[in-house]
Amino acid sequence: MEAGSQAKAQKMLTIKEVSQWLGVSRHTLRFWEKELGGIIVPIRTEGGQRRYTLDHLLLIKEIKRLKKQGFSLVDIKENFSQNNNTPHDNSDTNKIDLLANQIADIVKSAISNFLKHEENHT
Questions:
Q1: What is the mean pLDDT of residues 49-68?
Q2: Residue 15 sits in a domain of what CATH number?
């Protein structure tokens, strides 16, 4: 299926939009695409421009989370390869795992902020 017909099926985002939404530079997105070899595979328009789907966003958020936890790109690539969690693996279980990790990060951040707030008021 070509990028044009896929765009009709679901919202496609440009690299600029993904960069702004996720707080990851365009350079970093291109670097991760290259270094993770096959883990992030954006759809290309006829003109060669990258287009990202919701699945790509979830994947990039997970990579960003793992990087924040100190994992190297080599570790991340190995982890995704072992678990077969590639953009082509759209199983509900993988999406649920990604969402659960994101929720856990939000909860941790909220608790941390709450505890800092409490310390400042005691």
A1: 92
A2: 1.10.1660.10
